[in-house]
Amino acid sequence: MKNSKSKIKGRGAQKNIHNRFFEYSHEIRKDFLEFCNKEGELADKNRTQYLSVFPKTIVNKVTSPDVGMAYSMNMYQGCEHGCIYCYARNTHEFWGYSPGLDFERKILVKKEAPKLLETFLKKKSWKAQTIVMSGNTDCYQPAEKKFQITKKCLEVFLKYKHPVGIITKNALILRDLDILKALAKDNLVAVNISITSLSEDTRRILEPRTTTIERRLHAVKVLSDVGIPVNVMLAPIIPSINSHEILPVAKAVSDAGGLALSHTIVRLNGAIGEIFTDWIQKTMPDSANKVLSQIENCHGGTLNESRFGKRMHGEGQIAKQINDLVKLAKRKYFKDKTMPVLNTGLHQAYKTGQLKLF
């Protein structure tokens, strides 16, 4: 894979694109870049900023019928992992930022999330259902090392004996192994770890600030060995980038103790189409047109796909080949494995934070 010398190091997106909600746009002019070069200054310092925000609620009801969760919560908005394909990029526009570089460099931090979660779980009207961290951005992204909001939220789930799902691609999850083991004793936790490739070269360009594949597989094994159920998400599968790795990834996951494999086919909705196209032309110029064409083939001739029932797994010959290969991988490596249904029966007795005696 040929990398452009102009590629911004350590980032997925290679530019900020216009926020569709704004009348005015911001651009870096060539004469400004030339001035910075002559003065020996950096036009862009490429630094990550952490910005505190104060939402009134933290748990979101998920109305989409094909995402596999009913409720989600996100401790952070934006994600420093910088995955170029991330569907969550579009949501950064709602906060007044670009879905491009801003998504990776302006991380919004919800420090009050544990208190908001506790208030929600204590509602008399709430009947326990699995709440997933995170449905949007990774709850174990680099910001978690500093703020530890995810850890504090897990402690709340444990206190109230409430089921929780976790989606991440970061081995930082092992930091909280003791809390996860305590939840697992009552069947209150399931983990979903994203592994899109076994190639470090591919990982570095697709997901520049994520944990290595070796460490992710190690996390699958450690979690599985202590009885914490793990599903691995091969998501997204991108034709001609990682589509040839379905069977090897499935085998590696199964060997590590994973109980299930799920997948999606890449879709580039909203601003992501422009961001991804710019990225692949700079990062993989020789194969850019081929990859973009094959993505379009999976979605009726467009990069954008929003139809429920079609958007996750696509349609057409290329999509069929991918989906059939995933089915084969599941039969071959996960035939006698299954993820458990989490326990929703304990929470009601712990609404006050302690078990009722009468």
TrEMBL record:
InterPro entries: Elp3/MiaA/NifB-like_rSAM, MJ0683-like, rSAM, rSAM_sf. This is PA0069 family radical SAM protein. Coiled coil: none annotated. The keyword Iron-sulfur applies. It comes from Winogradskyella litoriviva. It holds the Pfam family Radical_SAM. The lineage of its organism: Bacteria, Pseudomonadati, Bacteroidota, Flavobacteriia, Flavobacteriales. Keywords: Iron, Iron-sulfur, Metal-binding. The keyword tRNA processing does not apply. SMART domains: Elp3. Residues 65-311 form the Radical SAM core domain.
